[in-house]
Design brief:
single chain, alpha+beta, Aminopeptidase, Alpha-Beta Plaits, 2 domains, four-stranded antiparallel sheet, 17 strands
Length: about 425
């Protein structure tokens, strides 16, 4: 078992400094050039450690193989993480700060002193006294989602290469792009990946494993009004901005929102709005563990739109619903080893496993739908998509130990 991970912190801090923020609506894949830059770095590092097939595709997808060191055939598994960061908070100019031996105090982040990281804003930090906490300086997100997973996978690959006495089968590494905008698996060829199961390293606290996600759709609502000069607007102007406000006001506020739901409750989440008097576009996330509920949520959006156009017949409201991903529980059940071996690995690494359902999605949602059962494993991601995002070095080290045990477990069968 790895007791030392000498390059893990350095790797992580180096990766988060690369701006890989995904961009909604970009015509390119990946959506931003920084993802290509980080992919080039990662492919070079994997080649340097002797993974001779390491390559970055034209789409920025990095793949490599940790070759088996056994004299018999065992199943190939895949470890997967994404290089992009969320567009909800800036990823430009990330400055990681390392807080050694965390003592429980509030940490005023120097890039933006209004951002205070501590038990008052992140109560779980009370469980991390004495640990090494990494945050941004408060101006940006940190990027632990999902560069903690990237760093853990690369560190584990390096450790296995330097410890040939630890027996394992073939392990495929895959780093994807644009996961945060729902395009992470657009250019993954499962036949070329060649694994029987995959694992996304894109989770939270030590010991957590997730084999169920939301099902997800995205609604784009386009509201068109009539623009005139405001000095001559009486009886002529129809403001799409005001119509957008009325539309949002008529969506549920005391239910079906992220602010009012938990556990297995779904929600409608207006998360993006842009435009002006003539046209406003609203992006809305539809989420539920029961896929059938997404259609009911879509009907609710259409109903609100229809009633608003009855009141304002000169307005035009278009609603477009696009599928994003589906609950992966059913697909993962097709190969029970995916979860059972991971539970064994977590226990062998000295942790008590905790099975959770994700109120969100991962690349594993889409990979499972395409036929590759892909549960999600912890990698110490906390306060995601926020200037108060943080991670814990010791927890990432636990993830490395888990992956080593997982590699060993797949050699045993049974």
């Amino acid at each position: 078992m790895p007791s030392e991970t000498p390059h893990l912190l350095e790797r992580f801090c180096r990766y988060v400094r690369v701006d890989t923020e995904a961009r909604e609506g970009s015509p390119t894949y990946p959506s931003t050039p920084g993802q290509l830059e980080l992919g080039k770095m990662l492919a070079a590092e994997l080649l340097d450690m002797g993974l001779t097939d390491a390559v970055r595709s034209k789409y920025g997808i990095v793949t490599a193989t940790i070759p088996s060191n056994l004299d018999r055939d065992v199943p190939t598994i895949a470890w997967i993480a994404h290089v992009d960061t969320s567009p909800e908070t800036s990823g430009h100019g990330v400055t990681p700060l390392v807080h050694h031996n965390y003592d429980g105090r509030d940490l005023v982040l120097p890039g933006d002193p209004s951002q205070i990281l501590g038990p008052s804003t992140s109560p779980e930090l009370n469980d991390y006294l004495g640990k090494t906490i990494i945050s941004s300086d408060g101006r940006t997100l940190l990027g632990a989602d999902n560069k903690a997973g990237v760093a853990v996978i690369v560190e584990t690959a390096a450790w296995l290469r330097s410890h040939p006495d630890v027996k394992h089968g073939p392990i495929r590494i895959c780093f994807t792009c644009d996961e945060e905008i729902g395009r992470g698996t657009d250019h993954i060829d499962l036949a070329q990946l060649g694994a029987v199961v995959g694992y996304t390293l894109d989770g939270g606290r030590a010991g957590e494993i997730e084999a169920e996600t939301f099902s997800a759709d995205k609604a784009t609502v386009v509201i068109r009004g009539i623009n005139t000069h405001p000095s001559m607007g009486k009886g002529k102007m129809l403001s799409a901005v005001r119509l957008a406000g009325m539309f949002l006001e008529r969506l549920p506020r005391h239910r079906l929102t992220p602010e009012t739901t938990e556990g297995r409750e779904g929600f409608l989440h207006p998360y993006q709005i842009e435009g002006g008097i003539a046209k406003v576009t609203i992006g809305i996330l539809l989420r539920d563990f029961d896929t059938a509920e997404l259609a009911r949520q879509a009907d609710l959006i259409r109903s609100v739109s229809h009633l608003l156009t009855l009141e304002y017949p000169l307005a035009s409201i278009e609603v477009d619903i696009q599928p994003q991903y589906r609950n992966m529980a059913e697909g993962i059940a097709k190969d029970p080893r995916a979860v059972s071996y991971a539970l064994d690995a977590i226990r062998r690494a000295g942790m008590e496993p905790k099975q959770l359902s994700i109120r969100g999605g991962t690349d594993g949602s889409q990979l499972t739908a395409k036929g590759l059962p892909t549960p999600n494993l912890f990698t110490a991601e906390h306060n995601l998509h926020s200037p108060l995002e943080w991670t814990c070095l010791e927890e990432m080290q636990q993830a490395v130990r888990m992956l080593v045990e997982l590699a060993k477990r797949w050699t045993e069968g049974g």
